[in-house]
Design brief:
With about 230 residues, this protein is α/β, with parallel strands linked by helices. It contains 6 helices and 8 strands; from the N terminus they run βββαβααβαββαβα. An 8-stranded mixed sheet has the order 1-2-4-3-5-6-7-8, with helices on both faces. Helix 5 (about 175-185) links the parallel strand 7 and strand 8. Helix 3 (about 95-110) crosses helix 4 (about 125-135). The longest helix has 18 residues, at about 95-110. The chain is globular, with a radius of gyration of 16 Å.
């Protein structure tokens, strides 16, 4: 069952929408799904639905609610791809992490005050997931091709819970030297696992569409499913 719910933002800023997919029966945990620059589009909604099918309460908040509420773009349409990169310029990652904290509070309430919570984000959302791992008490975090993580590595000392990162070897937006800096900063942290996928580009784990590289996507998703099963239940 899926619906859009409202979440109270921090500091009295108002309320914002979140796509909510509920499992049959009692959720075993909750997973927050963080969008790419394309909004809470069909691909992100499907990812939330897939987590619900595995028994998790899944929440995909609207990260653009302050300046482009309800934004929904298709990366396979060139004009919409270009528009998305313009729209995302209004996004403040610090505010995004605050919104994650608000969703954390909502998820805990929906779980009755008990149960663990994870986060998984893609591209822009991958960086948000990394920042959530450094700044919040979320139980487990996953980031797919998180652009900009290399610029936030000074926060890595705050990582005290499990974090998994997926990167594309041929990523046109995250250069090899940026990935090398990420490895140098994080490989020694026992809480962190980093995986790279040969021969694929940014967006390889898209739910569907031209960017998807199916074999790599399946491998990354299998690792993520096992990761959350281990750390969330």
């Amino acid at each position: 069952m899926a619906e859009t719910i409202e979440v109270q933002a921090l500091a009295g800023e108002g309320r914002f929408g979140a796509y909510c997919a509920r499992p049959e029966g009692t959720p075993k945990a909750a997973i927050i799904v963080i969008q790419e620059v394309f909004g809470v589009n069909a691909g992100i909604r499907r990812k939330a639905d897939d987590w619900a099918a595995l028994g998790y309460l899944a929440l995909a908040p609207d990260m653009f609610w302050r300046f482009a509420p309800g934004y929904d773009a298709d990366p396979d349409v060139p004009e919409q791809m270009a528009d998305a990169f313009e729209v995302r310029k209004g996004f403040d990652p610090d505010k995004g992490v605050e919104d994650v904290e608000a969703v954390l509070r909502a998820a805990r309430a929906m779980l009755g005050g008990a149960g663990k919570i994870g986060i998984v984000g893609f591209c822009m959302g991958g960086r948000v997931s990394f920042l959530a791992a450094t700044r919040t008490d979320i139980d487990a975090s996953v980031g797919y091709y998180g652009a900009g993580i290399d610029a936030a590595l000074d926060e890595s000392r705050g990582i005290a819970r499990p974090l998994m990162l997926h990167f594309a070897e041929q990523d046109q937006y995250i250069a090899a030297d940026a990935r090398a800096r990420i490895h140098a900063a994080l490989d020694a942290n026992p809480h962190v696992a980093i995986h790279e996928y040969a021969g694929v580009d940014h967006g390889f784990a898209d739910t569907f569409g031209a960017r998807r590289a199916d074999a790599a996507a399946r491998q990354a998703d299998a690792r993520t499913i096992a990761f959350f099963a281990e750390h969330l239940g």
